[in-house]
Amino acid sequence: MNFLWMKTMPRSYQVPHSVVSILSLSVLLHYCTGHPISWI
Q: Domain of life, per the record (predicted)?
């Protein structure tokens, strides 16, 4: 099922997935350090 899903969406998912991972990482850093992140 994963293989078929990756074949149907080869490239269109990679960019939003990286954006979501970067946003979640910055939110995690914001909660860990307690300082606001200026570029959000």
A: Eukaryota
DSSP string, the chain: -HHHHHHHSSSTTHHHHHHHHHHHHHHHHHHHH-PPPTT-
| 19, two tokens | 């954006």
Are 26 and 18 within 8 A, CB to CB? no
The token pair at 28 is: 């995690």
**Assigned domain for 13 exists:** yes
Domain of residue 12 covers 2-33
